[in-house]
C-alpha cells in the first residue's frame, strides 16, 4: 500500500509551495524584484509576475528598473514572461505593463535571439491585433 507515501509526498509539496509563497511575499516587501520575478516564473504564476512588473513600474524610474530586471532574466524565464504577457496584453488594464515588457525585450534582444524563443511565432501573432 503506497497511499501513506503518496499522502506524505503531497503534503511535502504543499508545504514547499507555502514556503515559496511566503518567500515571494518577503521578496516583494523587500523590493528584491529580480528574485521575485524568478520565483514567480518558476511557480508558473502569470498574475504574480504581472503584480511584480506593476510594483517595479510604480517605483521612481520604474521603466529603467523594469529594463534592468528583465534583461537579467535567463532565456527560459524571458520565454515564460513572453507567454504571460500575450495574455496580459489582451486586457486593457494590463496592456501597458505588457507593452513595457515587450519594449524591453525588443530593445535588448537581437532579432536572431528572439527568433530562437520557443513559441515566438504564436506570441507575435497573438500580440499583433492588440498592439
Automatic annotation (TrEMBL):
<dbReference type="GO" id="GO:0032040">
    <property type="term" value="C:small-subunit processome"/>
</dbReference>
<dbReference type="GO" id="GO:0000472">
    <property type="term" value="P:endonucleolytic cleavage to generate mature 5'-end of SSU-rRNA from (SSU-rRNA, 5.8S rRNA, LSU-rRNA)"/>
</dbReference>
<dbReference type="InterPro" id="IPR013934">
    <property type="entry name" value="Utp13_C"/>
</dbReference>
<keyword id="KW-0677">Repeat</keyword>
<keyword id="KW-0853">WD repeat</keyword>
<protein>
    <submittedName>
        <fullName>TBL3 protein</fullName>
    </submittedName>
</protein>
<feature type="domain" description="U3 small nucleolar RNA-associated protein 13 C-terminal">
    <location>
        <begin position="21"/>
        <end position="131"/>
    </location>
</feature>
<dbReference type="Pfam" id="PF08625">
    <property type="entry name" value="Utp13"/>
</dbReference>
<keyword id="KW-0539">Nucleus</keyword>
<dbReference type="GO" id="GO:0000480">
    <property type="term" value="P:endonucleolytic cleavage in 5'-ETS of tricistronic rRNA transcript (SSU-rRNA, 5.8S rRNA, LSU-rRNA)"/>
</dbReference>
<dbReference type="GO" id="GO:0030686">
    <property type="term" value="C:90S preribosome"/>
</dbReference>
<dbReference type="GO" id="GO:0034511">
    <property type="term" value="F:U3 snoRNA binding"/>
</dbReference>
Amino acid at each position: 500500500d503506497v497511499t501513506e507515501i503518496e499522502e506524505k509526498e503531497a503534503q511535502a509539496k504543499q508545504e514547499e509551495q507555502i514556503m515559496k509563497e511566503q518567500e515571494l511575499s518577503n521578496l516583494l516587501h523587500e523590493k528584491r524584484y529580480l528574485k521575485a520575478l524568478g520565483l514567480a516564473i518558476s511557480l508558473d504564476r502569470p498574475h504574480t509576475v504581472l503584480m511584480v512588473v506593476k510594483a517595479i513600474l510604480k517605483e521612481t524610474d520604474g521603466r529603467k528598473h523594469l529594463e534592468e530586471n528583465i534583461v537579467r532574466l535567463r532565456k527560459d524565464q524571458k520565454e515564460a514572461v513572453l507567454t504571460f504577457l500575450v495574455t496580459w496584453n489582451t486586457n486593457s488594464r494590463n496592456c501597458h505593463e505588457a507593452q513595457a515588457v515587450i519594449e524591453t525585450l525588443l530593445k535588448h534582444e537581437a532579432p536572431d535571439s528572439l527568433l530562437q524563443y520557443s513559441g515566438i511565432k504564436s506570441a507575435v501573432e497573438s500580440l499583433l491585433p492588440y498592439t
